[in-house]
């Protein structure tokens, strides 16, 4: 595609005066937004700002109440995903596109498989798929099931499919949430290459660094309205954050905490806990009133460690003591009854009951723990839900809404509330701040500190090292599925953690 005359040409894609209302919520209010050929445009905003709704409308996954969508300056039909795609506008979802049981080739060529004598021509399908993948610098086994590849690769295959079908605008909603650093780099390289060929890219993320690394322009939404749009170069990070949260930064930055005095009782002691091929045996003690952080790269074994602690994976070595009692954790229920709670990383997949109310979703673990014979009364459930909605600042008009209607970040907060409401002695959090915005981030950090100071023992897995340093008493550093260091409070710093992660095993 030629770039000549790009500046005075109408935008590739334009949304004019888009309004979208859900019962009780104006998700989008007179929103204008445009995407130019060859640009990477970041769409930013706090949880619930309307980002996903806007891209759903642009890509035909949701209908608009009023407003118009134009392509090349002409009114376009984006009433369904197929129609939007036919106009060249494609969403790249890590979950949606992929038919995991089909081969890579079939996924890339879906709907476009070449035919011979009325049948799909498998060789030609594979050849074209290989070519489409090669264009993105990917070489995959095109005959393998796509589902057997990691998320990062599936996402690139989804991009290859869109490119192959002549996508002119690619829209990615939080594509990097579960990728590690090299995977993110690879995705970015692909997006940059596509942009340089004239594709327009729209990109939603909560990682500010990524926005600055990748985008040329930023549009910010707040409460369903556009607050501003600017080239990335001309928008300092502080201003961006101000635009997003619409208030002072003070709240968004976790305060330094005073030095810790004394140590609480032992809440949990894990001795030689491990499982062959999963996590090497480790020792760890968690005291009441302290947070122990877990740092390490993706795949270093942090989540597996948490699963062993919680009985979600069966240990084949070691012992667990909780509040002074030896426990055999054969399942998460044993762990919950013993006083543990575990808020897993992939909250979307794990245990959201989309049709149930927020109240039901919050009360459910406490209810099961008490046993269904001792039913929580409705008013009690309501108080519980209201308390946690306020405490975690969940954005919703009320607790009776189906949880599936909350924005992604607010669903995460509600699920965290579920575990807090279960009154645990030990709380394990896996990436509690992933995928949520700066404001919500600060809410969760504040809650972690409050919980700690109220006497809970916490084990927090996080890739946000500065955050870990701020609230942790000690930090367990994992690498290659073993605990390679347990840093004490006076040696905690981001540099020290990075050094521990980087040092080859055995040199600790
Ligand atoms: N299907 C739905 N039914 C009712 N309300 C909805 C629905 N989808 C979204 N909303 C509401 O619309 C608003 C905007 O949600 P949206 O998902 O667009 O936010 P977002 O900016 O993508 O947030 P996040 O960063 O948390 O993903 C929220 O208040 C949300 O509760
Ligand atoms: Mg969203």
Q: Which segments are poorly predicted (pLDDT under 50) over 5 or more consecutive residues?
A: 1-6, 248-259
Query: What small molecules does the structure contain?
Result: adenosine-5'-triphosphate, magnesium ion
* Assembly annotation: single chain
Shape: globular
Widest sheet: strand ordering: 6-9-10-3-11-12
Helicity level: 25-40%
CATH homologous superfamily caption of the largest domain: P-loop containing nucleotide triphosphate hydrolases
GO molecular function, one term: ATP binding
Organism: Sphingomonas telluris
Domain ABC transporter: 13-248, 253-505
Protein name: Sugar ABC transporter ATP-binding protein
TL;DR of this structure?
The protein is α/β, with parallel strands linked by helices.
Can you offer a commentary on this structure?
The chain has 2 domains: about 15-245, P-loop containing nucleotide triphosphate hydrolases (Rossmann fold, 3-Layer(aba) Sandwich); about 265-500, 3-Layer(aba) Sandwich (Rossmann fold), CATH 3.40.50.300. The chain contains 16 helices and 22 strands. With about 500 residues, it is an alpha/beta fold. The strands form 5 sheets. Strands 6-9-10-3-11-12 form a 6-stranded mixed sheet, with helices on both faces. The radius of gyration is 24 Å and the shape is globular. About 35% of the residues lie in helices and about 25% in strands. Adenosine-5'-triphosphate binds near residues 47, 405 and 410. Adenosine-5'-triphosphate binds near residues 22, 48, 407 and 409. Keywords: ATP-binding, Nucleotide-binding, Repeat, Sugar transport, Transport. GO terms for molecular function: ATP binding. It comes from Sphingomonas telluris. Pfam families: ABC_tran.
